[in-house]
Structures are given as C-alpha cells and as structure tokens.
Amino acid sequence: MVPAKLDVKGTQILAKTLFKELRGSGYTPNQILGLSTELIDLVTKDLKADQEPHLSAVEGRSGEGWRAAL
C-alpha cells in the first residue's frame, strides 16, 4: 500500500530503495536513467491532462489554444 502523501524523506528513501533494487537486479545506470526519463514523461503528460479541463474553462476554449502556445 502506497501512502497518499510522501514527505521529502520518504521520497528519498523510496528512490534509493528503488535504485538499489534495480541495480541489484542487473540494470545499468543508463537503463535506470532511461526508465527515469520515461517516468518523468508519463507524469508530465498526466499533469498536462489534469490541467487541460481547467485551462479550457479559464480560456473559454476547447483546450487546443493553450497547447499551441507551448
């Protein structure tokens, strides 16, 4: 079970644990970096999707206008 809110220390411990587990399983630093990049991409897309309805309401548009500005 994952806590709803992780504090900074908890996040650091989780990251170190995950890193050690991946290295212990034979993943290279470059593979872990690739995984990290993919995770950041997924989180970024998720955050943008969460903002889209809000931006549509604020701008009074379908949401496509703010994407063009990015």
What would you note in describing this structure?
This protein has helices at 8-24, 29-59, 64-69. It is an all-alpha fold and 70 residues long. It has a domain at 39-70. It is elongated and about 50 Å long. The chain starts with 7 loop residues before the first helix and ends with a helix.
List keywords for this structure.
70 residues; mainly alpha
The helix/strand series, from N terminus to C terminus, equals HHH
Strand content bin:
under 5%
Average pLDDT works out at: 83
Shape: elongated
Described by strand count, sense and barrel closure, the largest sheet is: none
Number of helices: 3
Distance between the termini: 36 Å
Q: Give the oligomeric state.
A: single chain
Summarize the structure.
The protein is an all-alpha fold and 70 residues long. It has three helices and no strands.
